[in-house]
Amino acid sequence: MKKGVVYIVGAGPGDPGLLTIKGKNVLQKADVVIYDRLVNKEMLAHAPDRAELIYAGKESGKNAFSQDRINELIVQKASEGRAVVRLKGGDPFVFGRGGEEALHLVEQGYGFEVVPGVTSASAVPAYAGIPLTHRGISSSFAVITGHGKKGTPICQEEISKGIDTLVFLMGMENLASIVEQLIANGKTAETPAALIQNGTLPEQKVLAGTLGQIARCAEETGFGPPALFIVGDVVELREKLNRVEKKPLRGKTVVITRPEAQADSFGETIIALGGRVVKLPVIEIKRKTDLKRLCKIFKNIDAFDWLVFTSANAVEIFFDELVSENVDIRVLKGIKICAIGPATEAKLRQRGILTDLVPDRYCAEGIVDALEERIKPGMRVLLPRAQGARAVLAEGLREMGLHVEEIYLYEAVVPLRIDDEIVEKIIKGCAEIIIFTSPSTVSNFVDIVGRKHVKQIDSKTKTACIGPITSDAARKFGFTVDMEAESYTINGLIDALAAMQ
Predict the structure, then answer these.
(1) Contact 412, 440 (CB under 8 A)
(2) Average pLDDT of the segment spanning 87-98
(3) Which of 3, 22, 24, 58 is labelled catalytic?
(4) Which CATH number, 3.30.1330.60, 3.30.200.20, 3.40.50.150, 3.40.1010.10, labels domain 6-118?
(5) Active-site residue, selected from the candidate residues 36, 91, 305, 458
(6) What kind and span of H or E run contains 255?
(7) Of 248, 274, 326, 439, which has the fewest beta carbons less than 10 angstroms from its beta carbon?
(8) Is 36 known to be catalytic?
(9) CA separation for the pair 320, 304 (Å, rounded)
(10) What is the mean pLDDT of residues 199-211?
């Protein structure tokens, strides 16, 4: 059997955005992923569904696998002819024992490739507003293991006196000893020092003080691993350079209920604002399998005066079918185009279509009001939309004397696969904020978690809604609406979230 290939990949210090592009590309081709405790589980989503995921996490005194067992496991999986990714926190060659694993592969006759990662030694201080070097303050730094060689002091005189900035990884267990050795070998007790826990993650915490105080303060506050210890005058720059901990959503967990395909960019924005993201897609866009009626409409589409789109999904399906049926887009010439809001308008622009109308209020009622001055009785309106959408738009247009042709392109259904573990966590109050972007996200969410749990969730979690229609639906089910976007868009919702206290 052909031998497999092994990639020893650095996953970075925790923030999933710090995974390198090459690391992501390698994960996407993996047959097996063997990952450590400090690897952010979100990164595993880059692996194919077929990939075997093996947790080999290690922590002090609680090893899931010994290092020898991990070495054997890597070789075993590679011997099966599979692409093996050994995913390690930080950089695999910076106190990551990646060198040991690489040597074992060489000894067993297997090839490997190292994909370096962003080391916590530089990234974690940076996220805390502490540069390792700074002109006039620090011209040198050292990265030191907090474990040290057996029988050898961790901090000898050349380390204590000869280097401006000291970064200790895995040093919490020996913190008191490290401090004692530093002071004994020349560092003053007044030297600035800081502990950074869960660095680069939304739950990052920093304990800053002096070298003489830091161990006692850590014990009093229960400060524990995983944490990085940094010593040097650069720590004082934190007061001016710290930005991560001032982000508006820092430390808040936000539940996104949008369809999975639409959740990623929204989630990235929330993370950029300092929040954690829990994805619970409560809607799945299910295209109609029989769109023969739409194909017939294409042949006589010039009979319509207005084409009204109420969602980006409708735009996608409409134009996909137009192309599929080999219909020239120029058949739309002369038809006025209306989009319910900026997102739908943007999707039309991607298809080369400029809209004639976007209402001031991004809802069905807003379209009715905006069209009132632009239409004449007897005009024909084509309304491609979701089955089960509110009837207010079609009814409002008909009341103005318009001939409305509704065509259902898709349904917003409850996904077949729901992560029960996430549901349970939400019920227990794992999140600070739940976001609803449509009435159907509210109703489907309630169907999933159970109506009996709404009161419990509402007591622990704030509710944010994209607009008044969604807010009304939330209140109907018993939620307290704590925040509503002024502009009924995702950007408006983000602005409101950023201002939320």
Answers:
(1) yes
(2) 94
(3) 58
(4) 3.40.1010.10
(5) 36
(6) strand 253-256
(7) 326
(8) yes
(9) 20
(10) 92
